[in-house]
Amino acid sequence: MSDQEIDDFEVDSLSDTSRMIPSLPPYDIKDQLLPMERRSVCSCWAWTLLVTTMNILVFLMNVAFMATIFSVMLLPTIVVVYFGFKCHSRVFHSNAYYCKTVLDDSSSSALIILGFVIMSPLIVLAMAIYCSLARRFRLFLCFQPYARAVYKGVKWRWYEDGGLCGCAQVWNSHVKAWV
């Protein structure tokens, strides 16, 4: 291309109506990014305590939810390893009927090995279930920013999403992701 063609191309591709920003600024006074008013010291400490308490409760809820899912998913591994250790003569030799008649040392060792082998896929499956349910229920959006405690007028994150943690919002079925 010659220099004249390049200059013509640059002039034609730019116009006075091209947008420099992706969208117009919001016209609603609630949505504008105005400087927010800071809270007083006592109010800031009270709101900080409230936000911290809420974040700790959300964290404990997530831990309890994860512990429930992991304990249910790893129950077969726990049972198999328990019976393997219980009936092995060198670990904890039980006088139970099934240990004397069904399980000897080699079958107890096989149960222990089987339990530890099936543990890895079950941990991955439990983590995938937890992550998909946490994404579905938007559990991580329940954590509140500390700007809520420092500035007046900061909305709760779940306020605009249609309920606590966005659970009431319709799930977008077009978005799919593999964990």
Q: What does the model show?
A:
It is found in: Membrane. The protein has 179 residues and is mostly helical. It has a domain of 111 residues. Helices cover 55% and strands 0% of the residues. It contains six helices and no strands.
Produce the secondary structure layout:
Layout: H1 3-13, H2 41-73, H3 75-87, H4 97-101, H5 105-137, H6 147-150
Brief write-up:
The longest helix has 33 residues, at 41-73.
Q: Please, what is the average pLDDT?
A: 76
End-to-end separation in angstroms reads 49 Å
The tally of helices reads: 6
Main beta-sheet strand count, sense and barrel state:
none
What is the number of beta strands? 0
pLDDT under 50 segments (min length 5)?
165-173
Tell me the helix content: 55-70%
From the spread of the alpha carbons, the general shape counts as elongated
Structural class: mainly alpha
Strand-residue proportion? under 5%
Q: Using only CA atoms, what is the Rg?
A: 30 Å
List the helices and strands in order: HHHHHH
